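Hey team,

Filing this mostly as a record. A colleague (T.K.) asked me to run one chain through the structure pipeline before their review meeting, and I want the input and output archived in the tracker in case anyone asks later how it was produced. No errors, nothing strange. Just documentation.

Input sequence:
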Amino acid sequence: MRAQFVLSEIGVGLRRNLTMTFAVVVSVALSLALFGGSLLMSDQVSTMKGYWYDKVNVSVFLCNKSDAESDPHCAKGAVTAEQKKQIESDLGKMTVVQKVTYESADEAYKHYKEQFGDSPLASSLTPDQMQESYRIKLKDPEKYQVIATAFDGRDGVQSVQDQKGILDNLFGLLNGMNWAARAVMAMMLVVALMLIVNTVRVSAFSRRRETGIMRLVGASGFYIQAPFIMEAAVAGLIGGGVACGFLVVARYFIIDHGLALSEKLNLINFIGWDAVLTKLPLILATSLLMPALAAFFALRKYLKV
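Output structure:
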């Protein structure tokens, strides 16, 4: 009987404050969709880091005859066979180095033609203008500075370049976007909490005569508060369900179908469905507990039971 009463009161409360209940559902849905989206963005950035950092190389570019005339780093002339032999020897002794690949000027010219053959500049280049280089695969991509310190400024070395620096700029942008999404999510959560508190108070005020009678006949504080707390929890849970639907639909249409980024951007390793599905229980739990707790603390002060 008591359970039936509580359930009937929940239905009555949701119908009486239909407009505010709808506002709660929408605000909770949007805020938790942003919350889930920010978590998935963090997973995506971590996945991309693991994928791309494993592929980045440190490149040691050697001086050629053209550099000797124009580049102050190559003022002592083009790299000699002895200098190349010494560089190879030093690279082989470094514990941070996993693999070293030598690229000749002819190979560099061939790769350039394959990638930028349509460029007007490509027709004016010759193999002797290309630089020889060593492509170094590190055991830990963070150890770039070890290579830079050892070879930057050495005779015969034009420059030491780390591809990780280019990726860091991209990941910095993605992380900035992620933090912006979290800031909007925090504001939306505050709005949702304020709506929940106001909705509960309006509902309690509209039923103040009923709650007054219940107090007079000896009803417990929890028994009086339960319908209001459950109202907020149900509205929040509906919003959480909508948020979960947003995330699933977004993953389906943005990555798999619709925009189909997984097909158009083959170089990006996108997160899988497992990353999305593991976030859904957290979103549902938050959507249930957050409104319930907000309603509980609001009612303690408002009803004074």
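Quick notes for T.K.: The CA atoms of residues 58 and 136 lie 5 Å apart. The chain has two domains: 3-52+169-303, 57-140.
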